[in-house]
Design goal:
Elements lengths: L5 E6 L12 E6 L9 E9 L3 H5 L20 E8 L9 E4 L6 E4 L5 E3 L15 H13 L7 E5 L6 H10 L3 E6 L2 H10 L4 E4 L5 H8 L4 E6 L3 H8 L2 E9 L19 H5 L3 E4 L9 H13 L7 E5 L4 H9 L6 E5 L2
Parallel strand pairs: 8-9, 8-11, 9-10, 11-12, 12-13, 14-15
Antiparallel strand pairs: 1-2, 3-4, 3-6, 3-15, 4-5, 5-7
The structure holds NADP nicotinamide-adenine-dinucleotide phosphate.
Length: about 325
């Protein structure tokens, strides 16, 4: 008979450049015991996100680093299998930061109960969770869209980007997405209804943007930074809004790239560039979840997941996501 164990993915070393599988160790341990006030959750789904790359570094940031030998940080959704707190019951589904492991003992702080009637439970770490809410607040609050605006979104087929583009369409905007493969470009245009897609790895960004946005760009939702962003900034319109959601092109560089030297375009066009973190919208999550789930029910919002089975595959799947191998939200299915 197979004895159930806790399978954990630990940070083994701090990567230089892109992480490799050697930067992770997979270990098995006893399923942890639960003390008074705690609960034991069995992880059903693990979310893999670009921010985790930053946590592998030993630098001061908005969130603490993972220490060498610690379980990798990560959002997850799972089923409570033991509870010694009156706040949670066995069988309830919860979402929180359990890390890359098949079981976790938690003290109940920072957990959200998931209603399985609202949709597949993994949507609580996808479209109805952190990435969906990032798209919702980042686009609607920071970018303040108006009907007829020309919107560019980078990493457009990914967890955040695919939602941003569709919300932009719902708001009556014209939407252009940038992605790293022809398959991704076809996906955002043919399946998600973007007006145009640009393969930034194949096309000349300047020429393609000129042709896609003959009247300039009113909104840029930036997930990537780097040369894609440089070319967009040159084409922003008067009063444009730029949301700096992430800069994934910079997360694995060993030498920092030069910062943007073209910011005078913001002066000339009296444009706004604003960074944001989804956590600052915590008090308004219910609003975002309500509207996102309504758009899904109305058939206005679709969502693609890229699912890999097995916690042992988390390191290679994470590395693949940072290299653009994912199409949609990257998830590990555990059970
Ligand atoms: P994702 O788009 O699902 O996956 C990452 C994608 O980044 C890859 O598929 C790849 O797509 C693209 N990429 C990788 N290297 C690149 C490069 N050098 N240049 C351009 N694109 C590159 O990830 P996500 O979860 O939706 O996150 C998107 C961005 O949002 C990230 O920057 C993340 O850090 C940020 N984020 C911010 C917040 C916040 O609170 N501000 C919250 C969540 C996420 P291609 O094949 O298209 O290159």
């Amino acid at each position: 008979m197979n004895r159930e164990v806790n399978i954990k993915v630990l940070l083994a070393s701090r990567p230089i450049g892109y992480p490799t599988e050697k930067d992770f160790t997979i270990v098995e341990s006893e399923i942890p015991t639960v003390k008074e006030g705690q609960l034991l959750v069995k992880t059903d789904w693990l979310s893999l996100d670009p921010y985790m790359r930053g946590r592998m570094n030993n630098v001061k940031s908005y969130a603490p680093s993972v220490e060498i030998g610690d379980v990798m940080v990560g959002g997850a959704v799972g089923t409570i299998v033991e509870s010694r707190t009156p706040l949670f019951s066995v069988g309830e589904i919860i979402e929180g930061s359990f890390g890359w492991q098949s079981y976790a003992v938690l003290d109940g702080v920072g957990l959200r109960k998931v209603n399985p009637a609202l949709g597949p439970i993994q949507s609580s770490i996808g479209i109805l969770g952190m990435p969906g809410l990032t798209a919702y607040f980042g686009f609607l609050d920071v970018c303040e869209p108006k009907p007829g605006d020309t919107v560019v979104v980078s990493a457009a087929s990914g967890a955040v980007g695919q939602v941003v583009g569709q919300i932009a369409k719902i708001m009556g905007c014209r939407v252009i997405g940038t992605s790293g493969t022809d398959e991704k470009v076809r996906f955002i245009v043919d399946e998600l209804g973007f007006d145009l897609g640009i393969n930034y790895k194949k096309e000349n960004m300047g020429i393609s943007l000129d042709s896609a946005c003959p009247d300039g760009i009113d909104i840029y939702f930036d997930n990537v930074g780097g040369f894609v962003t440089d070319e967009v900034i040159k084409r922003i319109n008067t009063g444009a809004r730029i949301a700096i959601c992430g800069q994934v092109s910079q997360y694995n560089v060993t030498e920092p790239e030069l910062g943007p030297r073209n910011l005078f375009h913001l002066t000339k066009s009296q444009a706004k560039m604003e960074g944001f973190l989804i956590y600052s919208y915590e008090g308004r999550y219910e609003e975002g979840l309500y509207r996102l789930s309504n758009w899904i029910k109305e058939g206005k919002l679709k969502y693609k997941e890229d699912i890999v089975e097995g916690i042992r595959n988390a390191p290679q799947t994470f590395i693949g996501m940072l290299n653009g191998k994912n199409l949609g939200k990257t998830l590990i299915k555990l059970s």
